[in-house]
């Protein structure tokens, strides 16, 4: 076996398929772009769907990649099995309507067995095939695989519902008898069974059918190849590792963790090893996810990251690690992956800062949470229920940040279950957020070849001209059919040249008119998108019939286009201004450039203050007032990057790119339209700023006329306020507001004092009515107060004076009910808890609550139940006996 490290193995795979005419696709961001069906990129093919369904035609139909992916559907198995991971790399080669089964099998065999490449022993390789796929079996035999190394398996059919599907062939590596964990006669002891000896290393999918909506399977117009080879598994074979974790992809993180731990070193205790493995695995996923722009939160991707961090922290506690430590593994991950993912190490300081912040936040409550959890475990053992109830599981989540999955994992080791149905009642919304974030879109669309073979050239000339006098109509589509002539109604058309911009990069499509040679209006352009082969595909409302090969005049709405240009240039200025204010880690996360406003989403960990926005706005306006020239050059991506141009990580760039420079202030890759000088923008004004998700914020802004109108509207509002305040001049408004605030504060204090006196008078009467029940004294009654604060003040007075053993007070505040329960310390020592009493009586007001053993409170929506609550309190005290 060759001695290769993970970087060499990855590169060898890519080099092999490059030698077979494949283009190497860079690993895409873990955050899906324009794919709401996925929470994360979870496979190599996930980034290729647009090619397989025919919506985009690749420049080269042969593609290969090493794609970072995240899957968290079986997170509980991570660390407990040899091969479960949250983040992994999927090596893949893809054919989009080019080579098929025979070539894929021939090349697969060559890569695995040739001495020039992997050089594995052919006798150690086994293949599974779909029983009806006689071609696959025949082609494996052709390359030299014997019959006894080919196994038929009914489940060798790749199908995810509607869309491309087909049989597949899995390849297994025989690791030898020393890895065998089953008896010789065990029914799972074969390649493809559940065992440790035969390791699946590759899956080749022969995508040859469309799974139709009616459940039938029809042959694809273009057959495809989609393969997946897990890098971590292949590395474990080359490095003869017992599991994936004993490879150079994980051991550096394990060794770093071991240096921080005060317990047994790795490899000495299988139970402790689980914690080392969890930390090593999760540190990779967390680092890559945050590096790609996801941030910890309580929903969607952010919830996954938060859960991974908390899982790792709890496992760190099991290893005796005190305080934050996970952030120290970030640069270790970056170093391990540097050869193929240099950006991770470059961002390591920023990523580590976020991880440490999240660790600090969790560590603040972790000790209390673990203390509560251990108490709950002890109680369930004591009462022999062996179940943590749903309310307590929710409290662990809500108060101490324990996801229910973490609670379950922790209790499983003690033989205790969690009432997850009860938890769902308390926590259904939060529990389902991650699933809902995926949306309801289909995972992959049906393959549609209507425009795939339409390769007529079409040139966009809108950078220079907004009108074309002699455009030839090349293609017409009506009702999803290619036709030669249009009637009135809606159609899609392609011209040999066009001034209409197709929607891309956040910039909306142009609108305008189509005229015949006599100047008559024949159609109105309502939208423009890119066809699979890149042409500008116009959606039009036809006024007069149009014919293929006819000549037409195309005219863009200049006013509409000009306003879009202004706002697009403003997004470039805004992008750079945000980097100047918040740091280079700030990245564009989306944009929309309309004629009347612009919307810009960006990554930022933390709040954005009014002062921050003012700085950003001032920077942008300074560039407008500086009258900077806006210039564009065409070059290749590498040259553009050397020039310092900012590229969006989620975008795929062709051989030629446009680099847009705004003076010396901003330089970006951009295919959109821009003004020639920043002075054309006139003015820039931010209308709003808000958070729209975990670590993602949104700015909406306007320029030019809209900016003036926005400021003018606000000035009118300010003048009206000044008039209402009787301020003689606008500059007097702040002083008038300060005077009003002082007056309101004084009146509030007077009101509060009066309420306190009234409450005190009522309390004197209530405190006189002491019930003695079986040796326990109780005061229970209702009072008129302004809210829970005054109830707590009365409880403090009661405690200082020692009026009784137990106090129960209720109050109606507007249309709601408030309850407070206090218990004397002596009675708390005897096991009487305020929290138990509040839970018993709060249903009378349709509410709930809790608190400490000596003080608890509740709120409800049924004030009429307050008297019933007082009666229930007396009954509860009677039951103590």
UniProtKB/TrEMBL annotation:
Recorded family membership: Belongs to the class-II aminoacyl-tRNA synthetase family.
HAMAP family registered for this protein in UniProt: Ala_tRNA_synth_B (MF_00036_B)
SMART domains reported for this sequence: tRNA_SAD (SM00863)
Protein name: Alanine--tRNA ligase
Subcellular location(s) per record: Cytoplasm
GO molecular function, one term: zinc ion binding
CDD domains for the chain: AlaRS_core
């Amino acid at each position: 076996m060759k001695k290769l490290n993970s970087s060499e193995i990855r590169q060898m795979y890519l080099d092999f398929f490059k030698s077979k005419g494949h283009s190497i696709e860079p690993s895409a961001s873990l955050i899906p772009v324009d794919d709401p069906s996925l929470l994360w990129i979870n496979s190599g093919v996930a980034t290729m769907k647009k090619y397989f369904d025919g919506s985009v035609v690749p420049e080269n139909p042969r593609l290969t990649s090493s794609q970072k992916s995240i899957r968290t559907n079986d997170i509980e198995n991570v660390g407990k099995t040899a091969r479960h991971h949250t983040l992994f790399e999927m090596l893949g080669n893809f054919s989009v309507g080019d080579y098929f089964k025979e070539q894929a099998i021939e090349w697969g065999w060559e890569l695995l067995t040739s001495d020039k490449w992997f050089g594995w022993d052919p006798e150690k390789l086994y293949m599974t095939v779909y029983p009806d796929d006689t071609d696959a079996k025949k082609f494996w035999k052709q390359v030299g695989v014997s019959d006894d190394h080919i196994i038929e398996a009914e489940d060798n059919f790749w199908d995810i519902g509607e869309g491309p599907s087909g049989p597949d062939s899995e390849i297994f590596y025989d690791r030898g008898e020393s890895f065998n964990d089953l008896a010789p006669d065990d029914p799972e002891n074969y390649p493809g069974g559940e065992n440790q000896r035969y390791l699946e290393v590759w899956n080749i999918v022969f995508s040859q059918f469309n799974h139709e909506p009616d459940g039938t399977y029809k042959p694809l117009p273009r057959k495809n190849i989609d393969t997946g080879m897990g890098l971590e598994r292949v590395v474990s074979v080359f490095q003869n590792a017992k599991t994936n974790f004993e490879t150079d992809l994980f051991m550096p993180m394990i060794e770093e963790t071991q240096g921080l731990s005060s317990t047994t070193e790795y490899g000495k205790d299988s139970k402790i090893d689980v914690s080392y493995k969890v930390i090593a695995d999760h540190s990779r996923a967390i680092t890559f996810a945050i590096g790609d722009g996801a941030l910890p939160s309580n929903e969607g991707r952010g919830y996954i990251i938060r859960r991974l961090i908390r899982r790792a922290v709890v496992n760190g506690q099991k290893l005796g690690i005190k305080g934050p430590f996970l952030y120290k593994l970030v640069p270790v991950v970056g170093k391990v992956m540097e050869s193929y993912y240099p950006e991770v190490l470059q961002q390591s300081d920023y990523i580590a800062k976020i991880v440490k912040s999240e660790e600090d936040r969790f560590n603040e409550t972790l000790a209390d949470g673990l203390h509560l959890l251990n108490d709950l475990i002890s109680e369930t053992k004591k009462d022999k229920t062996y179940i943590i109830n749903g309310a307590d599981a929710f409290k662990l989540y809500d108060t101490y940040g324990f996801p229910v999955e973490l609670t379950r994992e922790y209790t499983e080791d003690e033989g205790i279950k969690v009432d997850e149905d009860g938890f769902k009642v308390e926590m259904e919304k939060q529990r389902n957020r991650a699933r809902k974030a995926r949306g309801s879109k289909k995972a992959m669309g049906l393959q549609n070849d209507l425009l795939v073979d339409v390769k007529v050239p079409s040139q966009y000339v809108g950078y220079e001209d907004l009108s074309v006098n002699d455009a030839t109509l090349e293609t017409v589509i009506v009702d999803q059919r290619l036709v030669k002539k249009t009637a009135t109604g809606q159609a899609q058309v392609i011209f040999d040249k066009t001034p209409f911009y197709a929607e891309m990069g956040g910039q909306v499509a142009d609108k305008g008119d189509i005229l015949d040679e006599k100047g008559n209006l024949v159609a109105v352009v309502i939208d423009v998108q890119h066809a699979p082969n890149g042409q500008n595909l116009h959606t039009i409302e036809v006024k007069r019939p149009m014919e293929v090969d006819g000549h037409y005049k195309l005219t863009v709405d200049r006013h509409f286009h000009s306003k879009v240009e202004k706002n697009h240039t403003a997004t470039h200025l805004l992008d750079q201004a945000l980097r100047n204010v918040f740091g280079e880690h700030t990245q564009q996360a989306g944009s929309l450039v309309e004629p009347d406003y612009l919307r810009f989403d960006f990554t930022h960990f933390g709040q954005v203050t009014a002062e921050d926005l003012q700085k950003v706005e001032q920077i942008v306006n300074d560039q407008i007032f500086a009258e900077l020239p806006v210039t564009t050059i065409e070059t290749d991506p590498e040259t553009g990057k050397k020039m310092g141009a900012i590229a969006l990580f989620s975008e795929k760039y062709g051989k030629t790119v446009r680099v847009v420079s705004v003076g010396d202030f901003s330089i970006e890759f951009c295919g959109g339209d821009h003004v020639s000088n920043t002075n054309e923008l006139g003015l820039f004004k931010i209308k709003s700023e808000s958070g729209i998700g975990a670590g993602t914020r949104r700015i909406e802004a306007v320029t030019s006329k809209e900016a003036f109108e926005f400021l003018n509207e606000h000035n009118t509002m300010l003048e009206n306020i000044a008039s209402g305040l009787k301020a003689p001049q606008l500059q007097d408004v702040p002083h008038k507001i300060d005077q009003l605030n002082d007056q309101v504060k004084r009146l509030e204090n007077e009101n509060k004092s009066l309420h306190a006196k009234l409450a005190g008078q009522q309390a004197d009467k209530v405190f006189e009515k002491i019930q003695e029940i079986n040796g326990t004294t109780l005061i229970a009654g209702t009072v008129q107060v302004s809210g829970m604060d005054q109830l707590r003040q009365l409880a403090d007075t009661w405690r200082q004076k020692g009026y009784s053993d137990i106090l129960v007070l209720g109050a109606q505040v507007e249309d709601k009910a408030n309850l407070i329960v206090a218990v004397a310390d002596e009675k708390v020592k005897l096991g009487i808890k305020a929290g138990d009493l509040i839970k018993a009586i709060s249903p009378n007001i349709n509410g709930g609550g809790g608190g400490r053993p000596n003080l608890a409170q509740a709120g409800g929506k049924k004030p009429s139940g307050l008297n019933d609550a007082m009666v229930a309190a007396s009954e509860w005290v009677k039951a103590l006996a």
